Structure formats: structure tokens, C-alpha cells
Amino acid sequence: MGYSDPVLAREGDVIRPYVSATYVYDDNLRRRSDKESDTSVVGRVGIILDKDISQQNFYANIGVNETKYNKNSELDNTGKDIVARWNWAVGSQFRGKVEYYKNEAMLPFADFRGVELNMRIQERKTFEANWRFHSSWRARFGVQRQDVEYDSQTLNAASFQENSQHVGLDYLAESGSKVGLVFTNGRGTRPFDRPAFFPGIGTVFVNNDYRQQSLKADILWLYSAKTRFEFLGGYVDRKHDSFSQRDFSGFNAHGNMVWSITDKTSFKTAAWRDANAISIVTASYVIDSGASASISYSATSKILLSTSARYQQLKFEGDITGQDQGRTDKNKVFSFGVTYSPLESLSFTTGLNRSLRDSTSPILNYNSTSISLTGRYEF
């Protein structure tokens, strides 16, 4: 249930198949105040292609996974994930990428209050081009299309499509740092209008299409050989095709820091504030703000310890029906993991996760604890 198993080919490998198996115990499978525990086994097979041809790099990661539950067999499912990317280059001035991404997985119950299996299909197509027309200046352009579909009849109105374009200009310092400005224009549409109940009126089908534009600063600061800061933030304006009281304008930002404390210890922290379109509730968008921190320690050449903490606040806005208006969720997630790699191609990982939600809608409160054990082998 949302347990990923990222696999990276070792440097110099061209084709590398892999297999993995994960056992999970979850004491609150459906993320409710009345807990129901279950165990599951996730098997995964896949193959990686990573090939350089002159200045071009071709990369693909194709995987299939099968999840079986002990008690809730109606949730058994088959997931798929594909990443295919061409990092292209023409001469010394022009670079970019063409990328295709697709993921089919069960929608986490933390996001969906139903009881049945609901598979979510996410698909993204990206084209980017950069032109370094001067040693210190770079222009960039990109287009992207993102599609999200749900196979459950109860959520078909939540299916989503967004087309966006961006242009930007970067100043590149000799140190590797950069300061840039990027403008993005996006159009979001849904194939189905969403039914909404208005007291005294009844059910009305609401159009949730919108247009969004943003102008943001894009900064990378290489403070030292061990420390880097990244920031992307600025003004965002979203206008809906209907019911303008749902429109949004304001400041969005993401910032993170990576610090290599020693050769064995690294620390990462991030903070954000974003207005995200969301379609599985009646609110038109969510103000998502929070912070996270993680630290990893290589105890030996074969043992890696890691821990992380994340705090997130979701404020549901733009609800014309009043069902979700004023709702605020506060989510906390803590994790700890140990990875043991007896061989370069073989690893075992065990993890402990604790998550809690405190909502102004008490029915949405929950806490959960899960334990996982994963074995992975790369051929």
C-alpha cells in the first residue's frame, strides 16, 4: 500500500534486472479512528536501462508489482511504474530532456475515505530545452502534460488533466550556483463535472476547470562543498471557469538544504507553502504548508541508518458547498530505517513508520504504526 522500492543501476551498468519482496504489518490499514490491522506482501520485478551514446543519455526503469493482503483480499492489486528519459544535447549550448512517466497504484487510504480498492493512474509527459547562449546565462523552455485517473466509479469525477508551459532565464555563477526567474502558465481540466450538494437547492454539477499562472525565483546556492540551498518561490494566481469565489492568488514557495556533515553523515531539511489543486474533496484547492527533516548515517560500509520527521498542515479552501470549507488537517509522520547490504547487489531494509492526523473534522482523525522488511537483489 504505497510502499515503493526504488532501484538504481550501478555506475557503468547498461541493463540490470531486479527483484524485491516486502512484508508489511500495518495496525491501521484504512487510516480510521477505529483501527483494523493487516499484513501484506509486495513482490516486484523490473529492469533498468542506462546507456550513454556520445552526449546523449538514455534511461528507462520499468517495473511491475503484485500486492497480496492477508485479511483484506479484496484490496489485492497489481501496480505498474514506468520512467523513460532521454537527456539530450546538441553541441555545447543546447541541452534538455524528453521524459515519460506512468504509475498505477492503489490510492492511499489517508487520501481516500472509502473502503473499496481504488487504483490511481498517473501519467506525465515532459519536454525541456535549455540554451546556454553565454557562459553566465541560460534560457530555458518546457512543456508538460499530466493526467490523473481513478478507476473507482465513486471518484471518476476526480480525474484530472493539466497542460503547462514554462519559460525561464538563469544567471550561472562560476561556483555552480544560479539565480533564475521562471514563468509558468497552466490549464487544468476535468473530464467530468463534480456533483455538489447545496442546502435548499439540491445537487448541482460544478465545473472545476481553471487556469493558473506563476512567476517564481529559482535559486541554487552552493554555500560550500558540503552544503547547498535551493529555493523556488513567488506569486501564483489561479482563476476558475465558474464560481470565482474559489479563485486563489498568493505566495507559494519551496526551500531545502542538504548538508554533508561528515563523510558518513548527511542532513536534509525542507519547508514549503503551496496551493494545490485537489479533486477528491469538494474544496477547489488546498493550502499545503509544512516542514521536514531527515538524517542518514553510514555506520559501516554495509550498514546505513536513517530517520526522518515531517509536519504538514492542509487548509481546504474554495468550497462553495460548505462541506469542506474551514477544514484543516495536521499530519505528522516519523520514520526510522536500517539497510544492510552484504553484497553490492543484495540489500535488506527494515523500517518503522508512525503517522498521525489531527483534523477539525474529528471523523478524519487517526494514528497508525507500520513495520516493513524488504529484500532486494539486482542481477
Q: Which H/E pattern describes the elements?
A: EEEEEEEEEEEEEEEEEEEE
Number of helices: 0
> Based on CA inertia axes, which overall geometry fits?
globular
Biggest sheet, in brief? Answer: 18 strands, antiparallel, barrel
Helix content: under 10%
> What radius of gyration results from the CA coordinates?
22 Å
Query: How many beta strands in the DSSP annotation?
Result: 20
**Percent of residues in beta strands?**
over 45%
Cα separation of the termini:
26 Å
Poorly predicted regions: 1-12
Judged by helices, strands and strand pairing, the structural class is mainly beta
Mean pLDDT: 90
Give a description of the structure.
By secondary structure, this protein is mainly β. Strand 8 (160-172) and strand 9 form a beta hairpin. Helix content is 0%, strand content 68%. The protein is built from no helices and 20 strands. The chain is globular, with a radius of gyration of 22 Å. The chain has strands spanning 15-26, 38-53, 56-69, 77-90, 94-106, 119-134, 137-150, 160-172, 178-189, 194-198, 202-206, 210-222, 227-240, 248-260, 265-277, 285-298, 303-317, 328-343, 346-359, 366-378. Mean pLDDT is 90; it is low at 1-12. The strands form 2 sheets. It has an 18-stranded antiparallel barrel.
